[in-house]
Write a structure and sequence with these properties.
Blueprint (H helix, E strand, L loop, with lengths): L2 E8 L9 E8 L4 E5 L6 H9 L6 E6 L2 E4 L12 E4 L11 H6 L7 H14 L15 H13 L5 E5 L7 H17 L3 E6 L2 H7 L2 E6 L2 E6 L1 H5 L7 H13 L1
Parallel strand pairs: 3-8, 3-9, 6-7, 7-8
Antiparallel strand pairs: 1-2, 1-4, 4-5, 9-10
Helix pairs in contact: 3-4, 4-5
Bound molecules: adenosine-5'-triphosphate (ATP) and magnesium ion.
Length: 246
C-alpha cells in the first residue's frame, strides 16, 4: 500500500487533551481521501503531522515504501515529497502565475521547468494566464494556480486543507469537480480535509470520518451515506445532514 499511517496520537504542548487519538488508515496510490469532521475534531492537526509541521507523541507513517516518521525517524517537511494547498491558497503576491509555479521546480533544467509549467497550466485550464499576478485572478483561478504549483514537482502526495472555504457556493461546486478531474488525470494521491459532507461526497474515493480526534468510520462515500452516487443531490444533502449528526 502507498500510505500507511498507524496509531498517530498528538497533544498540543499548551493543552492537556489529545488533539488526535490513535489514528490509523491506509491509502492506495492515486486514491483521493477525505478527512471529514466538525470544527475542532482534529482534521488540520492530522494534515500537519503528515506534512511534518508537528511531531506526534506516537505512531508511524510510511509513504511509498519510505519510513517518514516513527519513534526513531523524523524526515524534515521539505524532504517528504508532499505538496500542500491550504485554505488561503497562499500564492506569492509579488510573483506572477508562472513564477509561482516555477518556485517549486528548482532542481530542473530551464527547458524542463518551462515544459512542466505549461503542462500543469494546461491541466488546470489556465493557459495564457502566465503573466497575471494573483490579485488579477478570481478566487477559483487562484485556487487552480495553487493546485498547479503543488502538483508541478510531482509530489508523492498532496494535502489540501479546506481548499474551497474562501469560494462562493457556485464556484465551490465547479472547483471541486475540476479538482477531482485534475487529481485523477495526474494520478495524484491526495488527502483533503473538509467539514462539508457534499465536498467529501463529490471528491473522495473514500472518507475517513473523525470525531473528537478519533476515527469514527472509514468507507466509500456511498457506503457511509447509505446511497448510490447517482441519487439526487437533495437526497444526498439530507443523508449528509444525518451523517454529520451521528
Ligand atoms: N496550536 C494549538 N495549540 C493548542 N491547541 C490547538 C492548536 N491548534 C489546534 N488546537 C486544538 O486542537 C483541536 C483540533 O484542532 P484542529 O485545528 O486540528 O481542528 P480542525 O478539525 O481542523 O477544525 P476546523 O474545521 O475548525 O479547522 C482543537 O480542539 C483545537 O482547539
Ligand atoms: Mg482545520
Amino acid at each position: 500500500m502507498f500510505i500507511d499511517i498507524q496509531n498517530l496520537s498528538f497533544t498540543y504542548s499548551n493543552s492537556s487533551m489529545k488533539a488526535i487519538n490513535d489514528i490509523s488508515f491506509t491509502v492506495e496510490k492515486g486514491e483521493v481521501i477525505s478527512i471529514l469532521g466538525r470544527s475542532g475534531s482534529g482534521k488540520s492537526t492530522i494534515l500537519r503531522i503528515i506534512a511534518g509541521l508537528e511531531m506526534p507523541n506516537g505512531g508511524s507513517f510510511i509513504l511509498n515504501g519510505k519510513k517518514i516518521m516513527d519513534t526513531r525517524t523524523f524526515i524534515q517537511p521539505e524532504k517528504r515529497g508532499i505538496g500542500m494547498v491550504f485554505q488561503d491558497y497562499a500564492l506569492f503576491p509579488h510573483m506572477n502565475v508562472e513564477e509561482n509555479i516555477l518556485f517549486g521546480l528548482s532542481k530542473m533544467s530551464r527547458n524542463d521547468k518551462k515544459k512542466r509549467t505549461n503542462e500543469v497550466l494546461e491541466l488546470v485550464e489556465l493557459e495564457g494566464f502566465e503573466k497575471r499576478y494573483p490579485h488579477q485572478l478570481s478566487g477559483g483561478q487562484q485556487q487552480r494556480v495553487a493546485l498547479a504549483r503543488a502538483i508541478a514537482p510531482e509530489p508523492d502526495l498532496i494535502l489540501l486543507d479546506e481548499p474551497f472555504s474562501n469560494l462562493d457556493t457556485d464556484l465551490q461546486v465547479k472547483i471541486r469537480g475540476d479538482l477531482r478531474r485534475i487529481l485523477k488525470k495526474a494520478n495524484t494521491t491526495a488527502i483533503f480535509v473538509t467539514h462539508n459532507v457534499n465536498d467529501a461526497h463529490a471528491l473522495a474515493d473514500r472518507i475517513v470520518k473523525i470525531k473528537d480526534g478519533k476515527i469514527e468510520k472509514i468507507g466509500r462515500p456511498c457506503d457511509l451515506l447509505g446511497l448510490s452516487t447517482s441519487e439526487l443531490p437533495s437526497t444526498v444533502e439530507k443523508a449528509s445532514e444525518e451523517l454529520l449528526t451521528v
